[in-house]
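Justification of resources, computational component.

The compute hours requested in this renewal are based largely on the per-chain cost of generating structure records like the one below. Each record pairs the submitted sequence with a full structure-token output. That output is archived, and it is also reused by downstream analysis tasks.
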Amino acid sequence: MRIGLIGPAFDAQPKLERALELLGGDSAMRQIIYLGRDDAAGQAVAARARDGLDPDTFLRRAAELAPRGTAEEIAQLLAEERNTSRLGLIRRLPEPPARAIEMMDKWIVLAVHDKAVLDEDDISNAHIIVYGRADEASLNRFGPRCFFTPGPLAQERIGCLELMPQGHVEVRLLALDGSVQWSEPLYASGAKLVVTS
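The structure output for this chain reads:
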């Protein structure tokens, strides 16, 4: 299970397209979180949806290819349909002061644009805090917690959290060509939940 992380794109639309293509093409990706405050990801998704396959077109083309299509043509159609359906993996952060919370097995992942909006309860209830507002990529550990940002997309880096079979999470910083820039394992002893009234 993986969660992809894309920092603020600002005017880096071609880089955003590449990041979405890279993360969306990963079959283990459960979701892709855009950490910017703008609507760059929404615009990219809308553009891809316009260029993608709607269900009626897919069915019509599948019916045409079934009796006489080559294996390559059928594979291409299935790849187009898979790319269109994977657009549903892309998520925007909610408007502040709301936060996005994800679970990866026993891991609590908290996602925000600006980590300055977090309070003590937010931080104490999360294992991994991912954020977008930063000048560069960073991973900082504080006891059992870590703060991670892939930095702005202009630096051509994206992030990935992967739940490993052994139960720990690997935090990765990736280049837009898919190469791993660095990787760090995180281990947790269990979630601490603080309830306030």
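The two ends are 34 Å apart (CA to CA). The first strand starts at residue 2 and ends at 6.
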